[in-house]
Amino acid sequence: MDLDALGACLTTSACVVTQTTSGLIVGMLLFLVAAGVTLIFGVLKIVNFAHGTFYMLGGYVAYTAIGITDSYAFAVLSGALAMALFGVLFERVLISRVYGSNVLMQLLVCYAVVLIFDDLVKIVWGPEFHAMGMPAAFQVPPLFIAGGVVPPFYAVLIGIAALIAIVLGVGLSMTRLGKTVRAAALNPQMVSALGVNTTALFAIVFAVGGGLAGLAGALAAPVRSLSPGMGFSILIESFIVTVIGGMGSIAGALVSALLIGMVRGFGTIGFPKFTDGLIYILMIAILLLRPQGLFGRRS
Amino acid sequence: MRGHAALRDAVIAAIALVVVLAIPFLHRSPAFEDFIIRLSAMALFATSLNLLVGNTGMVSFGHGMFYGLGAYVFALTMQMTELSLPVVAIFAVLVTAVGALCVGAICVRLSTDYFAFITLAVQMLFFSVIISWQSFTGGDQGLRGGIPRREIFGFELASQLHLYQFCAVVAVLGLLALRHISASPFGQTLRMIRDNETRASFLGVVLWRARLWAFTIAGAFAGLGGVLAALFVSGAYPELADWPNSGQAIFAVMLGGIDSFLGPVLGAMILLALNDVVTRFTEYHGLVLGLVILAFALGLRRGVLDFLRLAWPGRSR
């Protein structure tokens, strides 16, 4: 524990800016992954334990795509689209067979997918760590905000994630598809009886969730290294985000992802070894005081 | 009737124990003995989890915490004191039971999903404490320096054969005790809670108290499994309390069968055997294990023992 360092950091604007930026990066990437988890849970009542795999594969697909075309924009798009497609396949081929069965059976199927794809990644890309490297367009001097150093790529990354959050929020509340999705979350039988093709709807939800996770993986590739099993840690964190924010709530996912990002950003200074512990304490506290999560509805 | 069933269970346990103990006298195989030692730890771990999952309908994602707690308390006490092994083992199980009681006291009132998540969170908190409290637990390197394997009742636990016999006896006795608990009126109450908690509540069952007892008992037996695991690896490692380890126990329960008492034991056997056999042939054992799990989950749609019992009905449970 190093509270002096934390105090010293909080009183210098440079340190606050730097740590806030790194917290925002963590939080925004986490939001993209957790948004999919919470959306899938909200509509299908399935806890997708394979969501970290989407994130991992998105990163690897982007890594290959940038190797071929040298365009980061194309790499990010291909990572997201490939995972949207993968999400649909995953839902149709595997998950649709365990709807309505024991939660643990669904967990088993998801875990099998995690195991299989961790090894497939090892076979295709090798077991070693890969670094994508900063895209050429962003290899420019960093911005200085209030004395803190902010690489332009970070700013763009946060901007893209924020944009996605807005699009997702508006899409869910304003568009016809979004309203149908929210209706299906409340009462799928009724939505089905009203003539909506819920089979297609469920596949779309998985496509959106998978696409978001793939996008996050592709966006994160230049700042984090790629390795088989990288989906594991983000999976746990995105569950924490979902639980703190409230299962099924996108706004809750955004707020709690940012909260966790900040705990990570500043926690590394005050409690370098116990940052994870802080997050678990936060989760336990929320579950005890408000089990339905910050934005969740009491069922 | 109940006395009859209890006697039958005791006879089955005795026969199993005699068979397992007789094998090394007919044929010594270090690999097999290794397997049984690991299985005894894992079987206790998985079966104790099933007291929660299958019997009571409480899905705990954090059962590995008690496995790890048992292992650490046992290994640390053995290293720091001169007490004899059985005393330390009992002490470790008691500490684990108290730990489970405390964790259970905060967790058991939450509904299914949230119960799963909070047990996971508490376990991960415990895991981060192990990692960060380096001076005491050895951090991510684990607790090294070995466990002094003191002689008990003429058993020299440094010898593999004696460790094998010790683990087999402890595991069979532990399983018999768990069987007794799950067949007792208390066990029946737990199943009633699983099937219809509102009705159980109307009949005067205090739900949280029964659940808390189940949680504590399950934790204690997981701790016993942890003691055996610590003996086997001669130390304690944070991985014992990490969440993939809880996952292993859940898979053992699911693979073997949630509604059969011996299901988790069979599941643990399948999981361990798969690991051993597959790692011998390929480094991609996750791929093979994943495909096998998929085949089980989508093909049988339930654990092996549950599947067999459905396929050949009429047998007693």
Outline of this structure?
The complex is a heterodimer of chains A (299) and B (317). Chain A has 299 residues and is mainly alpha-helical. Chain A is built from 12 helices and 2 strands.
Describe this structure as you would to a colleague.
- The complex is a heterodimer of chains A (299) and B (317).
- Chain A has one domain: ABC transporter involved in vitamin B12 uptake, BtuC.
- Chain A is 74% helix and 2% strand.
- In chain A, strands 1-2 form a two-stranded antiparallel sheet.
- In chain A, helix 4 packs antiparallel against helix 9, helix 6 crosses helix 7 and helix 10 packs parallel to helix 12.
- Chain A starts with a helix and ends in a 10-residue tail after the last helix.
- With 317 residues, chain B is an all-alpha fold.
- Chain B contains 14 helices and no strands.
- In chain B, helix 1 runs antiparallel to helix 7.
- Chain B is globular.
- The chains are: A mainly alpha (299), B mainly alpha (317).
- Chains A and B meet through helix 5, helix 10 and helix 12 of A and helix 5, helix 11 and helix 13 of B.
Write the layout of secondary structure elements.
The complex is a heterodimer of chains A (299) and B (317).
Chain A: H1 3-11, H2 13-44, H3 51-69, H4 72-93, H5 103-125, E1 143-145, E2 148-150, H6 152-174, H7 176-186, H8 188-193, H9 198-220, H10 230-245, H11 250-270, H12 275-289
Chain B: H1 2-26, H2 30-56, H3 64-80, H4 85-107, H5 112-132, H6 134-137, H7 160-183, H8 185-195, H9 197-202, H10 207-233, H11 243-256, H12 263-281, H13 285-300, H14 304-311
